[in-house]
User: Fold these one by one.
Assistant:
Number 1:
Amino acid sequence: MARPLQHSTEFSYPVDKILATIAEDAAIRARLDAIGGHEAELLSHQKRQNGYRYTLRQGIPADKLPSIVRKIHSGDLIVKREQEWVIGGDGTVTGTGGATVSGVPGSITVTTALTPRGDGAKLQVNGKVEVSIPLIGGKLEQTIAEQVVKLLRREDEFVAQQLAGAETG
């Protein structure tokens, strides 16, 4: 059974600046350098007329993994993430994304929306975590969903700091 995944945050910057700070090649590389974890790398990046598409890899050292994960997986976890952002004509940006985790049979899928909100914007992430392991799959889904939300919060904080630094720098 899939575990829902929800996360939202508000920024005090317009959609175009937020999108650039989330999805531009250099911005992703800076974020990965700062919070990407073990073996973090931008594997591919395409800037398109109507948005972006990229794939990245992030690693989580074994000693940082929750005990439930260490029971079924030895060694570091490698997470491969794919994201696509599409710029709409109405000032909104929507997207789809997904992730797989090495050694864990399952997936993470998300839809994303970046919408104007007054002088700023709101980022909304909705998705699900599915792990197909009998008996402990639900517990793993819950743990993974919690860890994904923690990562999204850290990424949001980094984006906000980058935006603030660009404004003062």
Note: The chain is about 35% helix and 45% strand.
Number 2:
Amino acid sequence: MTGLLLLPLAPVRGTLWVADHLLQEAERQAGDPRAVQARLAALNRALEEGTIDEAAFEEEEERLLARLDSPVRYTGHRGGAS
């Protein structure tokens, strides 16, 4: 009986499940040091090519370096909490 009552909520629950998994994957990729290093390399190329100015470079570089020092790592978990 409960299954029938919750059936109208299935699309919402499915959407929330997908959104949660997308968020987890984004956090995993954001904490992957290889991805951050690749972004830093691209940032350096953009500066060398003149597509960004020094101020924009420094701002983005600082943000990326902070991400490397962040407790969020490749696993997507924060500081040891599971």
Note: The CA atoms of residues 43 and 60 lie 8 Å apart.
Number 3:
Amino acid sequence: MIFMKSLDSKIKGIEVIEFFGHPSIRATHKTTFEITKEEDLSLRGDCVIGVKANKSCIDIDDEVKRRMTKDVPIKITICLGNYTFEVNAQGHPSLTLTDERDIVVRKSSYICPRTLAIRSDRAAIDLPRYIVSILHKKETKGKMTISVLDEFKA
């Protein structure tokens, strides 16, 4: 992946989370996207883009968590086969990363135990619709790569 090569020296921590598609994925939420360990999904979960994840916030490596709890840029890459979707977000000292079920990325600055990153430049609604159609299949397997980049220099 070209993105990773060009940023290699700036990456300070990486976490990869695997997840699956589901027929009820709508990806229409305008301010968040979510990946969950839950196996089922109702149509109310319009921010969910993946289910049956192998990790939630609490499962992220402690060193990666430590780095995320600073004001650092975070690059999130969603991969489905040959398709990728990239998101730029921000870490924050108030992140707790303790939820046992979900991972939520937010455009806002709201923080709760489910919050992975804030001030995202993308939400569920921004996923290309061809990617959403791939996510409608239960057998679709995806990966979310979280890359914590160098700290900002003051």
Note: The radius of gyration is 14 Å.
Number 4:
Amino acid sequence: MKKLIVLTLIIVLITGCGKDKETNENKVYSFTYNNMNFVLGQEFDKSKYGKEVSYSEVPSCAGLGVDKTYTYEHYEVTTTPSDDKDIIYNIYLTDDVVKTNEGIKIGDSLEDLTNTYGNNYEKRDNAYTYTLDKTHLEFIVEGDIVSGITYYIDVE
């Protein structure tokens, strides 16, 4: 009987006392600045985010209209057309004033990056890419220092 009780306690401890562990399934990367939340894949409503510093357009790679880039003081947001809407396709952080929602900024160390996000990344050259569903958060690392941060989504 004691063995059964001990075995039951071990199973409960291993499974987290019956609580569902949070998973990254169906989550996406997003960026928040000054209480404005930019969610990859969601419609971009320019009126919610204030006046941009600059604006540009290029033909969409998919040939479905134009990609639009809104440059703000510390970041850029690029949208792409989808179902008659402009969706957030890419967010590029341009300086160390802004941080990811998890607290990493340009100028942080590779150690800070991996302590925060873990080692479940894809590394190509000096790019460390973390993926949630169809969204990606990519860090460019030069000399063990984060020098660039980009959020992007797979567009179908």
Note: Helices lie at 2-14, 110-117.
